[in-house]
Amino acid sequence: MAATDIARQVGEGCRTVPLAGHVGFDSLPDQLVNKSVSQGFCFNILCVGETGLGKSTLMDTLFNTKFEGEPATHTQPGVQLRSNTYDLQESNVGLKLTIVSTVGFGDQINKEDSYKPIVEFIDAQFEAYLQEELKIRRVLHTYHDSRIHACLYFIAPTGHSLKSLDLVTMKKLDSKVNIIPIIAKSDAISKSELTKFKIKITSELVSNGVQIYQFPTDDESVAEINGTMNAHLPFAVIGSTEELKIGNKMMKARQYPWGTVQVENEAHCDFVKLREMLIRVNMEDLREQTHTRHYELYRRCKLEEMGFKDTDPDSKPFSLQETYEAKRNEFLGELQKKEEEMRQMFVQRVKEKEAELKEAEKELHEKFDCLKKLHQDEKKKLEDKKKSLDDEVNAFKQRKTAAELLQSQGSQAGGSQTLKRDKEKKNNPWLCTE
Interior CA angle at 232 toward 227 and 238, to 5°? Predict the structure, then answer.
């Protein structure tokens, strides 16, 4: 009998029996709380919005601290995601908070692919968790979960409608992360404009099929407040780290020439509502939704791409070992096929190379024979020329010898005539006076 059948029978045969006395497993919630507190919690927030909408200021205001960070400029060549992790402590509860900001979002002339780096970053965190989960030796209890639990989407307070960039980006992200839309710097528009702007945003999100995060109402303890807060989405918020004295209290506020806007005054903005819903009421639900909904969707798609399924074509439970063997055999078959193709390709290329080499060798031989013939012809010409030059040299030497001989004979004849003339002069002195 298969293990799945046994498990099914065990589940179907479960009975409820009364206890005769106290056992003690009612302390399990306390044990779970103590263990969770000792391990600490992690929460990851993605802030998406154009530069200058006050994302960093709002984070500082939400967690009542000053996070380090450099102000972004409008000269970024593309969208970059900057991640910073902080360890926070409140009472005896530790929180590892990661804030991811989109630097340069919406600053480019061509905004068509602005959402892609964000989607790739979210998928990369899912992939890292999946790889850790698929390891033989897993350490998930100490693994730093970097999956995004909440996406605060900052909307510019234009008072008109959502930009096409906002709609496209939220549509690409709604199946990967919990989106909470907020109107940034809501003190830039009037109350009446803000109310109309909220209605316009909600209608555009619905008409374009964008699924934003809805605060859960299935838990009776938070159903009422969550149901009320769902009607206030998107939240209109204001951020400020400056404290001003209002009455007898120091409060976070923004000072303007016409008056003061109090951050924690619900009549001025929805900051308190956002803090209550994001941190104090639904933080665990955001973490759970990330794991059970968005990560499970990514995991299922990835495993289906790898060939894993829950049931086979006969609707029977799928065996992991059988799937592995089938994929292994399929992989080996493809490997052998590729190996054979590569071998044939290699043989074909060797043959082509041999033919090219033979052709080149033939051309070289022909060229060598041609050069050899030219060399022989040149050699013959040179030998003929040398022979003619030797003949000319010999003829020249003969002529030179003859000329020298004639010259010596002529000089001898001239010398004898001179002696004869001198002798005659001696014998006849009258010849000297002439």
Answer: 135
